[in-house]
Design brief:
Layout (H helix, E strand, L loop, with lengths): L9 H12 L4 H21 L6 H21 L5 H8 L1 H23 L3 H30 L6
Helix pairs in contact: 1-4, 1-5, 2-3, 3-5, 3-6, 4-5, 5-6
Length: 149
């Protein structure tokens, strides 16, 4: 018999997802996001476009992908990670919302896109993180399942 925690409401599942995501390799995620954002900024500068919002949003998306994806792929016994692997789309909503909010804010304050352009950038990056983490969750369930206590 497998363990299925009772999740009566959406807010409870968000807390479980945040608990599972907090176990990710966030130092490596910060380094990966900084490298990806820096490389994107260098490519923008080589192309003659001085833009900070685009490279920053790319770095933020990579940061959330490495951190939340790494939490799914870690070894060990944890009920929250087991729940996240059983519900990969519910788990992916939390990092995707974080990506959407931070990318929206970076485009709103650092670019001339305006409110709706910034909203579009935030939602599209959040959707990309959602889809990629959902796929990582399905793969992690088969490759490295979390054991339940």
């Amino acid at each position: 018999m497998t363990y299925q925690p009772d999740v009566p409401s959406r807010s409870d599942s968000a807390w479980i997802a945040m608990s599972a995501a907090s176990q990710g390799p966030w130092a490596a995620a910060l380094a990966g996001g900084a490298v990806a954002g820096g490389a994107d900024l260098a490519l923008h500068l080589l192309g003659g476009h001085l833009s900070v919002a685009g490279p920053l949003s790319f770095g933020l998306a990579v940061f959330f992908l490495i951190g939340a994806g790494g939490a799914l792929l870690r070894r060990g016994q944890d009920r929250t990670r087991a729940w996240a692997q059983q519900h990969p789309w519910s788990y992916a909503l939390v990092p995707a919302a974080g990506t959407a909010a931070t990318v929206f804010a970076s485009f709103l304050f650092l670019s001339g896109d305006g409110l709706f352009g910034s909203l579009w950038e935030g939602l599209s990056d959040g959707l990309g993180v959602l889809v990629l983490l959902g796929i990582i969750g399905y793969v992690a369930r088969g490759v490295r399942p979390a054991s339940r206590r």
